[in-house]
């Protein structure tokens, strides 16, 4: 008796969602040197921590509302809006000249964009992955060796 055929995991929609998530995460993590810049413009360690926390707190607080929005409007509108906001916010970092409300607004916008994209792209991936490939798909996000599991 032969094993049942597995549905393919690496479909075009799955690969597009994976690539979108990769580039979003790459752009999000390009701000590795932001604490050094903030220190140069006069921020102490507490201020740097609070600015980093503003991004994380916004991202976490927004997700329940974004989940509800995805259930009503679908994944795609949130992915498009999140991508546009993320591109805008990345450009806005170039306008930051020092400490103040502007850097807080940019960091909050970055947290919102991250929440929109992370939630919508992972929900989309969960929607399009066949049931037989769910464990392989979740391993894709955790291991660079996923391509050898097929």
What can you see in these coordinates?
This protein is mainly alpha-helical and 150 residues long. The protein has a domain at 83-127. The protein has 6 helices and no strands. It has helices at residues 12-28, 34-40, 45-73, 75-92, 101-128, 134-140.
What is this entry, summarized?
With about 150 residues, the chain is mainly α.
Poorly predicted tracts of residues = 142-150
Question: Whole-number radius of gyration?
Answer: 18 Å
How many extended strands?
0
* Major beta sheet summary: none
Task: Describe the secondary structure blueprint for this structure.
Elements: H1 12-28, H2 34-40, H3 45-73, H4 75-92, H5 101-128, H6 134-140
Which labels suit this protein?
elongated; mainly alpha
């Amino acid at each position: 008796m032969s094993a049942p055929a597995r549905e393919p995991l690496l479909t075009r929609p799955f690969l597009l969602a994976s690539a979108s998530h990769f580039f979003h995460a790459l752009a999000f993590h390009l701000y590795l040197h932001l604490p050094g810049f903030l220190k140069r413009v006069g921020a102490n360690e507490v201020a740097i921590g609070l600015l980093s926390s503003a991004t994380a707190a916004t991202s976490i607080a927004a997700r329940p509302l974004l989940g509800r929005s995805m259930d009503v409007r679908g994944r795609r509108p949130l992915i498009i809006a999140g991508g546009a906001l993320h591109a805008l916010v990345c450009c806005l970092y170039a306008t930051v000249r020092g400490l103040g409300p502007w850097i807080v607004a940019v960091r909050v916008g970055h947290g919102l964009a991250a929440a929109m994209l992370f939630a919508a792209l992972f929900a989309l991936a969960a929607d399009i992955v066949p049931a037989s490939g769910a464990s392989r798909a979740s391993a894709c996000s955790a291991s660079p060796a996923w391509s050898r599991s097929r």
